[in-house]
Structures are given as C-alpha cells and as structure tokens.
Amino acid sequence: MPTVGVDAVSQSSTSRPLAVIALAIISLSAGPDSRPSLPTTIGPAGRVSMKLHAYAAATSSVRDFPTIPRSPETLTISGSGCDKFELVPLFIDFPLGIAACFGKAEYKSKRNVTNTRVSPEFLMTPLSADLLTDCLAQLDRTYQDGTITDHSVAKMRTWLTEARYSEFAEPLANLIQRAKSDKTIWKSLDDAYWTVIPFGTGGRRGKMFPVGSNAINDRTIGESAQGLAEYVTETCLADGEPSCTIAYDTRHRSEHFAKLCSEVLLAAGFKIFFLRGFRSTPELSYAVRYTKSTCGIMVTASHNPPSDNAVKVYWAGGVQVLPPHDKGIIQRVMEANEIGRFPFENGVRQGRVVFMEDEIDTAFVKAVLKQATPGARNLSVIYTPLHGVGATAVLPVLRGAGFQDVRLFGPQADPDGDFPNVPGHVANPENPEVMSGAIEEARQRSDDVVMASDPDCDRLGAAAAIDGTSGSEWKAFTGNQLGALLTDWVLEKRRDQKNPGPADTIVTTLVTSGLIRCIGEKYGVNVIDWLQVGFKWIGRTIDDIGAENFVFGCEESHGYLAGTHVRDKDASVAALLLAELAADLKSHGKTLHQKLDEIFCEYGCHLERQLAIKLPGAAGMDRMQEIMAGLRKDVPEEFSGLPVRRARDYGQLQILEPGGRETPFEGEQGDLVIFDLIGPNSPSNQDSDHDFPSLRNAIAARPSGTEPKIKFYLFAFSPPMASAELPSAKRLLESRLDLLEKDLRKRVGV
Questions:
Q1: What CATH number is given to the structural domain containing 677?
Q2: Is the separation of the CB atoms in 290 and 367 below 8 Å?
Q3: Residue 596: inside a domain
Q4: Number of domains making up the chain
Q5: Are 452 and 352 in the same domain?
C-alpha cells in the first residue's frame, strides 16, 4: 500500500517521508553549512519542508526564538494527580463525571502575548527529532494495518510538522505515544482527524478533544473566530469599529472558548460586548440587536451530549448566519492559517471589552414580557433548566408576568455540563424521559405543568396531567403538539385584540406538522411552511415579511417564538405563552391535553414520530449519504400499504414519482426528501391552493445539521371527528406509525 499523500512513489519508499521530516527539524538546529539538502515533495508534510527551507535561508545560523515562546498551552487537571492527558482516552465513550474529554480541567497558557499577530513562518514544531520520527513512523504503521484512515494520517502528519499547529504538536505526540499501550486511543484520533469539522445548521458543533480538525478545541474554535473576523472586516464593514457580542452556556470549557473567540476578534480590531456568566441563546440574539453589533457568537452545543461544544455565529440583527455570509465565513475558516490573539485582560483594561450583562438582562426580560397578555395566573409550575442556563431567562419572565407558584426542580437546577441528573445525560426536551423526575414530583404535589428547557434555553418541553382528576396520568407533549397549542393560543389572543388579517403570518418549516397550517388558515392568516429545517430561516423570514406582520414561528424540534425581540427560538417566551394558556384552561376546568384533543377533533388528528439514527465517523457519513441516495434513486410504490404520491427531493429540487418520472419545482434547497403518501381518507385534491399539501400522511428524511445522525419524520392523519371517535382514531394512527417505522427501517437498513 503506498504512503498516504505521496503520488507516484514506489512501495519501497514508504518510510522515507518519516525520516525526512525529522531530518528537516535537525537541520534547523545546525549551522547553515551543515544542513543537508531537503526534498521538496514528501507527502502530506511536503509543505513543511518548503517552509523550513525558507526559514533556513532567512535565519542563517540562528537557532532559537527568544521573543516567541514555542511552548504549547498545557492542560492541567485539578486535583487528579494524573499527567496532563491521563483522561483523554475516556473521551471515546465519555463516562459521566469527567469534564468533557479534559476532566475537570482548564488550559493555562504559558504564552505572554503582546502582539496581535504571530507569523507561523517563525515557529517550528516543539518536538525533538527522535520523538517526531517515532510518531510519524507509528502513523505510517497504523495506517498500513488499517487502524486509521488515509485522511486522518495525512492530517495528523500536518499537525505534527506544520508551524501553524506547533502548539498542538506535543499533545498529539503524547497521545500517539500512549496509543502504543492503549490501542483505543487510535479510535479517538481517527475520529478527531478524518475530516474538517463543518458548519452545520447552527454553526460549528462537535465533540471536544484537545487536538484534531474534526473536534472542538482551541484550534478549530480559533479558526472559526478568525474566519468570521476576516470575513466581516474584508467584506461587510462599513464605517467605524466592528463589534461582536459573545455569550456562553454551562457546558465545560464554554467560558474558555468564549474568551478565546474574544481574543481572536480583539486582535482583528473588534470591540467585544461580553456577557459574563451563563446566558441563554435567545438573550445573545437579543444582545446582538441591543448593542447593534456587527455579529455575535454563542458558545453552546445546545441539546447535544456532554462531550460536545460549539459556536453559533450570528449576523447583525441577531439571526444566525445565512447565505451568502455563511459560505463566505466558511471559506475564510477553511483558509485560516495564522490565528491572531490579543489578551482578554488587556482588552478589558483598554475598554475594548465591555461587560453589560446586567443592562441586557433587564432589557431582555422586559422585551419578552411585552408578549404577556392579561388573564388568569393561578397555575402551579415545576420548571427544570436541565442543568443549563434557563434560570436566568425563564424564571424572571414567568415571575415578571405574575406567575408566582413556579418552583425549580432541585435535582436538575445546578449548572453542570455533565448533566448528571438527566436520564441518559443528554438534556434534550425532545426526549420526555428528561422530565421524568420533575413529572413524578409534580404528580405527587398535584402541580399543573412541568416545563423544561435545553441547556442554552432556546427549546421548551412540557408535560401535564391528561385530565383534571386526582391521580391522572401525565404525558409529555411533542414539539408539534406544543406548536399547535401555542399557535392556536397566540391567534386566539390576537383575535381578541384585533381581527387577524391576511398579512399576519405564521412561519414554520417543511418537517413541522401540517396542523399548523390548518390552524392558521382557520384564523385567516398567512402561513409560510416551506422553509428548510433550522430556526435561522424563520428568523430571516421575519425581516423578509416585515416584523409588523410576524405573529408566531415554530418548528417540530421544540422551537417557538412570539414577538420580534430576537431572531431565534426562545424558551422564555414559549414558557410565558404556555403558562398563560394553561392558566386560562385551568380557570375553565380544562387541561392542556384536553385542549389538544379539541384541536384534533376540529382540524383532524395529526400524529407524528421521529427516528434519529446515530451514524458517527467517516463510515457513518458514508452510510448517511448511501441512505439518502437510495431514497432518491428508487422511489417506492408504497410504504406499509399507503401509496406514494410523489417524493420531493429538496436537494435537487425535483419531484420524483414512482416509475422514474422527474419534474423540477421551485423551493428552498436542502438535503431533505419528503414522501407524500395517499392515506385512506386523503382528499381528492391534496394540493389545494398551495404548491404542496400540508403534511398529513408522509415520511421525511434528512441528515442532522448538528449531530452525526440521520433523522426520519413520520406523519399520520385522520380527518376531523367527534370527540367520542378520537381515542380509536389515535390508536389507528399509532398503529399506522408503527407499520411505517417498520417498513422504513427495513428499506433503509437501520
């Protein structure tokens, strides 16, 4: 097998690059006359040899660089007594109680940065020649035996040898050395290097790991901030100083990454509005608007596992970056070489870092409370932030609106990036189990509602008693069900205040329940439901249609927004609306579930199910692409007995029909396929006045933009009915969903 990255090199030459790199390093510590000639092509490390030549020519016999320390940032693990990478291999399966992959740790920089730019040509690997040679040899052997992929070995060679990665060479080398006795480390390294971590639905998100192009660490976060800084200053800056508002959540290393982003942007000439302490994502969106910042950064991995972190990047106006800015930023991120840093503390002393969280906290709560309406307030609520930031946003809003009987669920109240008291340790309100403890306490105390927000408080989950009787069963709501309840409530209150008109608009996405359109049409408002997945598209639409026309936005993944104080989903305003609705229903002797049943009877029963299949790593990515290609290539005649009317391929903007006929259509492009099914009670004209019908009986498939998984959305529908018929209709639809899931899993092999 030829050496990775070496073209037209014989089998016998595979070991040559390993020795050549070490020789290059040795040559730099010798006088100019003693340096051997270096090859200009040595596989993945080839560019390094050219840089070394340039350095040798420029520095003659100078050996050291006293003004630019070469020591990398070191990892210290508090109170562990372990060496600095003792806990790294545990990252593979992430046992809880470990602070991400780093343990309870923090980076302490040995550098005393006084300049804003450091040219990588004046840096070199801190590794000894022997260590470097050994590491490169191990990489070659491990690739040869199939343990790591070609992309991984090429990138690891680069991180060991290229100047721009010099501070990460030693940590990587240590891991490679430890892999001699612990082969599981190779799996972590392969995962960390097989690709470059992309920008997804909400920014750059992934597992934390001290090194690697496919992991969240100082290098990839630094690249993200550098790319943003360069794009803003090069293409979007008008007059004046660029600015960025930055906030962070309770995850491990969130504050560290927030300050790192600040330092990179300070070096690029930005002013920073920094929110100290944990804050919600919607408050960050609000703060970008409040400060009139050029852009914003939220450090959070939202509902992802404890091992993950991320940066969400926001544009002026508080909406997550959209075309064409997203592509422009991505290009700069991918091209990032040197990363400038200006010390955070120096920025504070110079007045270039401004702390204004107290001012923004007050203004944000006031902005949310503008959505409050007069009415009943007799409601008992248990609220859980799931160890996240929600206590800073939801509690002040509910209490400010007059809801006094609101209690924090104690076991999940403390900010903790391990999410220790959350079942499965994944704080995602889409999973009803995360509220199981709070529900049990609410049941015992005869409370009315349980609410839960995800770690960055932009999603809201809820559960309530099915009826008002003592000992009633409790049940959580899906994101679509909460969306329907809140849509109906917002429109009902708007009708009480004024007559809704055709310019008033409800906004949602392609994979959100068709029930939202049904409700909107009954109230006579405009419904936009053809947006791709991601609340950023809803945020953009607010400005497209005019803020005065926006009434409510929602998506199936528990994201909701009323008002125009932000351009992102907001759990605090959703909690306010839900509390108002629940209190109003309680005053009339009804529960939230009973109200939902009334909606089902009036508009038709809409049930849905979501399947999220984890497919990590390079093999997982290949498998996802294979599944999506298969769905597009062979459109089935039916799913579990329901005929397929058509498949909508939003990747190619083509209607695919069984038998192979293809027809183009206009729409928002994205990696999404929707199969419209003909149900037992489907109307003769499903298209109505719309390009496509609202989702009734359907299957949708898309790769996640935030996690290594593919998502399937299953929808089942029964027409309007009398209340006595609803229980049997629900059972029938659940059976239909069971059959659809079984058929789908068999077809795609998951």
A1: 3.30.310
A2: no
A3: no
A4: 3
A5: no
Distance CA 675, CA 662 (A): 14
Spatial distance between the Cα atoms of 16 and 23, rounded to a whole number of angstroms: 11
Q: How far apart are CA 256 and CA 4, in angstroms?
A: 35
In a domain, 189, yes or no: no
Computed from CA positions of residues 19, 24, 27, 33, in that sequence, does the dihedral angle turn out positive or negative? positive
Instruction: Name the residue with tokens 């309840």.
Output: 485
> Which of 531, 554, 589 is at the close of a domain?
589
Question: What is the full DSSP assignment across 347-376?
Answer: HHHTT-EEE-HHHHHHHHHHHHHTT--SS-
Q: Say which residue the tokens 């199981």 belong to.
A: 436
Which residues are within 8 A (CB) of 709 and not within 5 positions of it... i.e. 6 or more apart?
Answer: 612, 613, 614, 615, 703
Q: If we measure between CA atoms, which residue out of 119, 21, 29 comes closest to residue 68?
A: 119
What is the Cα–Cα distance from 499 to 673, expressed in whole angstroms?
Answer: 37
Query: Residue 238's domain is classified under what CATH number?
Result: 3.40.120.10
Are 557 and 550 contacting, i.e. CB atoms less than 8 angstroms apart? no
660 and 739 within one domain: yes
What whole-number distance in Å separates Cα of residue 436 and Cα of residue 476?
A: 9
In this structure, are residues 206 and 197 in contact, taking their beta carbons and an 8 Å threshold? yes
Identify whether residues 317 and 351 lie together within a single domain. yes
d(CA 646, CA 660): 10
Q: pTM score, two decimals?
A: 0.84
Backbone CA torsion sign across 420, 422, 426, 427: negative
Query: To 10 degrees, what angle do helices 281-291 and 571-587 make?
Result: 120
What is the CA 500 to chain-centroid distance, rounded? 35
Six-digit token string for 482: 């909460």
Cα distance between residue 552 and residue 505, in whole Å: 7
Query: What range does the domain containing 214 cover?
Result: 71-117+196-361
**d(C-alpha 165, C-alpha 153), whole Å:** 15
Same domain, 568 and 630: no
Any domain includes 537: yes
Q: In terms of C-beta density within 10 A (0-12 exposed, 13-18 middle, 19 or more buried), how is residue 109 classed?
A: middle
C-alpha dihedral sign at 344, 265, 285, 304 = negative
What's the confidence (pLDDT) of residue 556? 97
Asked whether the beta carbons of 745 and 737 are under 8 A apart, the reply is no
Q: Which residues of the chain have pLDDT under 70?
A: 1-124, 200-202, 237-239, 682-691
The residue ranges of DSSP E strands in 249-294, in sequence order, are 271-274
Please state, in angstroms and rounded to a whole number, the distance separating the CA atoms of residues 229 and 227: 5
Of 556, 589, 622, the position where a domain reaches its end is: 589
**Whether residue 734 is found in the same domain as residue 663:** yes
DSSP one-letter code for 92 = G
CA-to-CA distance for 283 and 356, rounded, in angstroms? 12
635 assigned to some structural domain: yes
Looking at residue 124, its pLDDT comes to 64
- Residues 368 and 563: beta-carbon distance below 8 Å: yes
Sheet with 406-408, strands from edge to edge, namely 406-408, 381-384, 449-453, 460-465, 474-476
Which has the closest alpha carbon to 604: 522, 528, 511?
Answer: 522
- Please tell me whether residues 376 and 398 are part of one structural domain: yes
Q: Which residue has the tokens 């249609």?
A: 545
Peptide bond into 324 cis (omega under 30): yes
Q: Are the C-beta atoms of 589 and 599 separated by less than 8 Å?
A: no
Q: What are phi and psi of 292, to 5 degrees?
A: 55, 40
Cβ neighbour number for residue 95 with a 10 Å cutoff: 11
Eight-class DSSP state of 511: T
Helix (H) / strand (E) containing 526: strand 526-531
Do 205 and 79 belong together in one domain?
yes
